[in-house]
Description:
protein phosphatase; protein tyrosine phosphatase activity; 10% strand; 5-stranded mixed β-sheet; cytoplasm; alpha/beta; Protein-Tyrosine Phosphatase, Chain A; Dual specificity phosphatase 29
Amino acid sequence: xxxxxxxxxxxxxxxxxxxxxxxxxxxxxxxxxxxxxxxxxxxxxxxxxxxxxxxxxxxxxxxxxxxxxxxxxxxxxxxxxxxxxxxxxxxxxxxxxxxxxxxxxxxxxxxxxxxxxxxxxxxxxxxxxxxxxxxxxxxxxxxxxxxxxxxxxxxxxxxxxxxxxxxxxxxxxxxxxxxxxxxxxxxxxxxxxxxxxxxxxxxxxxxxxxxxxxxxxxxxxxxxxxxxxxxxxxxxxxxxxxxxxxxxxxxxxxxxxxxxxxxxxxxxxxxxxxxxxxxxxxxxxxxxxxxxxxxxxxxxxxxxxxxxxxxxxxxxxxxxxxxxxxxxxxxxxxxxxxxxxxxxxxxxxxxxxxxxxxxxxxxxxxxxxxxxxxxxxxxxxxxxxxxxxxxxxxxxxxxxxxxxxxxxxxxxxxxxxxxxxxxxxxxxxxxxxxxxxxxxxxxxxxxxxxxxxxxxxxxxxxxxxxxxxxxxxxxxxxxxxxxxxxxxxxxxxxxxxxxxxxxxxxxxxxxxxxxxxxxxxxxxxxxxxxxxxxxxxxxxxxxxxxxxxxxxxxxxxxxxxx
Length: 562
């Protein structure tokens, strides 16, 4: 998540709300991120972290097409390679003589090392290997610093990015130095960049007070904010104007809290298919809003016309509009969901989404193509699909501790990457089928059917990313089809997994319970979370809510026809 900007309209509030977490929270974050501990791992496009064994293995470096080496443990008493070690290769070397002790000040090397990495990646074929003795502390600290300095990441974002691909453990001293860098970069960003309104752009006295030297007008032109370079001719300001494209819109009114907020909420409901509750939650995370009672009633009418769920009374929103906005890494999904479709038949796996991805070939070469009549249940009149915030509260309320794998349904296990790659554990559990919800090569689990060629396992893969904007709903029915086919034989046992076994895999199995076991999204979550710690991302929860609404509607229609 990029660092925030200052506010030109109220410079006194330029400190922002971001705070660097304490070291204890950062350590907990690193411990919960499930990476690997190989001699060499790619942790960011073109950036590898590893140990001294990989650093001295020229054949491995050449196989990975490494062009640059950053030794974070240079020196006579460390990993004493130096540029001479690589003189028979085309590798560019940079050494940092550092010791892995909390008392050692590694921060003077943050910027030189970051600049070396940036220079290495400036070439389309550039790849940099950053190492120390074990590839855990010194090397990871320098990579984290690079991501913060040149990739505009916060320390938390950098740890998440690297930790997803490799286990890292900067010592306490290095962690405090990274925290100081995080705070420094955040303050620099706030003090040097400002985001403002038309009045501020025209207030030369304010601009001079803030020592503004450059202005970027993102709404240039006669129909927008027509200042131009001539407006600043008497000031030492360089001007750059950009005609605002249609996808960059400022919605405003006099105070920016009622009329503009109401129209923005309506847009989110109509175009992004958010309920009124969800739209209010999203906007209030970023700005305090207060639509008047009349506008709120009109939004409630819109909500009723768009969704079949019950609309809350105006009084239910009172607390939402008085809550201070705060930054949230769950953004509005940018990819519009097209909605769930279903044909006339009442099969368990129904809909065009099941057609979007053909089932991958099983071990025998045949493709899974199964339908079965789902049990019809009477609609529960007093049930309505909860909002995303309510589902998050259910998920966070009382769950089991995290483990590598858990049985969440008879003969169905949800697990992580370690479980999926541990053939001994798979045999011990009696696994016969695997659904990989994170197939792919980058930040996924790159196993594939070939990985299990020496085992009697049927494999099915879904290429999905664990980001809120990814449309996982296109695989809900095809994955449910595979799960149902597997469980039709009581001798079969299924492992559903992704990297951590929390988001993608959990979402697909929840969808199965809703489609084939006639559970509501609440029932499905309550059932699974009693058996495994699951955390579907915000976008996946939204897609599960839409599935829940779709299934409720179809079951209601079926009950009406009977």
